[in-house]
Amino acid sequence: MAAAHKVFELSHVFKDVSKIGDDESVCSPNEDYFGVPWKIVLRHKDEKMGVFLSCEKPSNNDAHCIVNVVYSVKLMSSSGVCYIKSDSKLFGEITEHGWVNFVNWNTMVDAFLIDDSIIIEVLVKTIFMSGLPKKSPKNFDESNKEFSDGIVVVKHQNFHILKKFLAFHCEYLEKLFFGDFKEAGKAEVTLKAISSTDFHYLLAVLYEDYAIDDDNVGGILRLASYLQVPIVIRKCEQFLIEGSGKPMEIRLDIAEKECLQNLKKHCLSKVGTADQIEAARAILPSDIPKRALKKFDESNKEFSDVIFVVEHNKFYVLKQILASHSSHFKKIFVENVDKREFTLADIDSNDFQNLVEVMYGVSFIDDLTVEGVLHLAHMYDRPFPMQKCVEFLIDLSEKSPKEKLKIAKAYQLKNLEKAALARINLPESIRAALSCDMAQMEVEVLKALMQKALFHLSDTKVHTETFF
To answer: How many domains does the chain have?
Structure first.
């Protein structure tokens, strides 16, 4: 699978352009992506029109931020003429990149100025990001008490957890909580010789509340290997393959130490010699095996306290997992405290299986499952799975922009709509998007597509080069 590059688009109509004096600049409003404010800067200097992409350091972040991007700047006119320049730059100490002489000022006035206004569009694809602000991981202090039945103490820090949920993911903790250990049955257990920070991150990843990154992946992976938590090991490996900015040599070293065969194969294919690659192919699987469905049948009864019946299939699950992510199910459980079995009508059991897997953190959404999971997440008011579906559709899905626009309209997903529109730039993709029932399109979407189509009506392209 390709690396999960982030793509977004900035677009702004600059008005009263004739009033911009020499050596003056005007800016578009800041737009926040990945916790960083971005904007377009238009500058008039020495009869030249400069255009710059600005990536400012967040005011609440003291870390050294680095963002490597490829970007394409397009100056557009309603007559169909467009002028494009592209580049690849590293934002860090330097927060602004672009062209002092994007186009001659008089050329801009003659060819692009309409009603004293011009339209500038910037398409950005991130290659690597580091030091950006992160959201704090989920708290497992007393505020999480409602959704817990036990306490794990690490370095004098109390973590309020759900025993059956952790036991479901970790055989060691299953034995600790419910086996022959002296701690079994106790409300509070202590884990020694591990970092409380790493344990906090591991819990947050298990609860699907925190993203693995280059700063924490080492600690999370070591602890997941020590406690043998397969799903977290798998997620760390996937990040190191798809999203890490660490040098390949370092990732290969991690793969060797932690026996991550898919990561090892990936690294050797990037940096190894022909002999090394051939040797790796001989001992490693050619493809990542298709995952087996996680069973929520009677074999999971020990780690459940409620049953859902869907199309005659019984799913043994934990109330707290469903209630913690869905106000709909929380209300059902509150109103039916003593009820053990519930029936859900008019939904597909495969979709429910996929949804529960996402809630338990044992499945990665893909193009085959995303719409079913999204449908049920929307139906049962589950923001977390919806967020995961949107992230997948924006970052990893191979669905066409037309398909994504259709999904965005069905579930009112504005971020997905904007991301899909940003990827519609070639004439064939514009035609494909416009081939659907335009009467069903949102006015703003139709307007954006028609505007893009207009840019391609003219055969005149003053300059076109792009990395996209």
So the answer is: 3
pLDDT of 280 strictly over 70: no
The mean predicted confidence, pLDDT, of the chain is 80
Tell me how crowded residue 212 is: count the other CB atoms within 10 A of its CB: 21
Distance from chain centroid for Cα 34 = 10
CA dist 224 and 222 (Å) reads 6
Using the Cα atoms of residue 355, residue 357, residue 360 and residue 366 in order, give the sign of their dihedral: negative
Q: How far is CA 3 from CA 39, 131, 241, 339, 422, in A?
A: 25, 19, 8, 45, 18
Helix, strand, coil percentages (3-state) for the chain, rounded to 5, are 45, 25, 35
Identify the domain containing residue 363 by its residue range: 298-455
Helix (H) and strand (E) counts in the chain = 18, 16
Neighbours of 22 (CB within 10 A): 11
State the Cα angle at 37 between 33 and 41, rounded to 5°.
120
Question: What is the CATH classification number for the domain harbouring 190?
Answer: 3.30.710.10
Give the pLDDT of residue 385.
82
Amino acid 101 reads: N
Residue 271 inside a domain? The answer is no
Q: Is 322 helix (H, G, I), strand (E, B) or coil?
A: helix
Residues near 368 by beta carbon (within 8 Å), at least 6 away in sequence:
none
Rounded Cα distance between 170 and 161, Å, is 13
**Same structural domain, 318 and 437:** yes
| Residue 135 binned pLDDT confidence (cut-offs 50, 70, 90) | low
Note the pTM of the prediction, 2 decimals. 0.54
- 276 found inside a domain: no
